[in-house]
Amino acid sequence: MDAIDYYNKYAAKIFEETVEEEVTEEVREEFLSHLDEGDAILDLGCGSGRDSLDFYERGYDVTPLDGAVEMCRLAEVHTDLEVLCEKYEDMDFDDAFDGVWAKEAFIHVPKNEMEDILDRVRNALTRKGVLYTSVCEGEFEGFSGELYFSDYEKGELEELLEDCGFQILKTWTTKEGEFRRGYEGSGWIHVLARRK
Questions:
Q1: Nearest to 155 by CA among 178, 104, 189
Q2: Cα distance between residue 174 and residue 189, in whole Å
Q3: What is the fold, at CATH topology level, of the domain defined by 3-195?
Q4: Three-state SS across the chain?
Q5: Could you read off the pLDDT of 133-185 as tens digits, one per residue?
Q6: Alpha carbon 77 to chain centroid distance?
Q7: Exposed, middle or buried: residue 161 (CB in 10 Å: 0-12, 13-18, 19+)?
Q8: What is the pTM of this model?
Q9: For the chain (length 196 residues), average pLDDT per consecutive 10?
Q10: Between 20 and 30 A from 125 (CA), which of 22, 39, 84, 89?
């Protein structure tokens, strides 16, 4: 099953599990420290809309985007914002956003598709725009249960981003429980990168 089908099928359950989930405030603050109030943010893979709502309430011009129709519907109800329902590979923005928040947005994307998607993310950013993303740390790529996962090593992710026209600002790792519940035993790689 592809990720969009999975998230459509289990949208209500995923929404309930994530809508109130606490995100480490330091991660959000690190991202926002590179933006000015009122800047435009693309919340890529917005899921429940939790982060979109937080950014909106802080005064940012936020655009939530998700590929799963059912997640988009639930996010719209939760945030009262218009959610773009679009696959990453169909995104076509040009210098539209000062920041792209892609928390866990790429964990189900096969590695051979990432260059095209990161090119689209780069094009969506204004000059000197900032990307935040997080991925599972490791070497695994393939199906685990019903979902496809792509884990990364730190250097591998940094090299991919640099090859796609990003300058790495900061990379750090956290262990499960410091960042998010539900991925027992996994670590997370976080990257802040600026469009070159």
A1: 189
A2: 7
A3: Rossmann fold (3.40.50)
A4: CCHHHHHHHCHHHHHHHHCCCCCCHHHHHHHHCCCCCCCEEEEECCCCCHHHHHHHHCCCEEEEEECCHHHHHHHHHHHCCCCEECCHHHCCCCCCEEEEEEECCCCCCCHHHHHHHHHHHHHHEEEEEEEEEEEEECCCEEEECCEEEECECHHHHHHHHHHCCEEEEEEEEEECCCCCCCCCCCEEEEEEEEEC
A5: 999 999 999 999 999 999 999 999 999 999 999 999 999 998 865 444 445 55
A6: 20
A7: buried
A8: 0.92
A9: 86 83 83 98 96 97 97 95 97 98 96 98 98 95 93 98 99 72 70 98
A10: 22
How far apart (Å, rounded) are the C-alpha atoms in residues 163 and 101?
A: 20
**Burial track 27-50 (b if 16+ CB lie within 10 A, e otherwise):** bbebbbebbeeebbbbbbbbbbbb
> Would you list the domain boundaries of the chain?
3-195
Residue with the two structure tokens 């956003």: 97
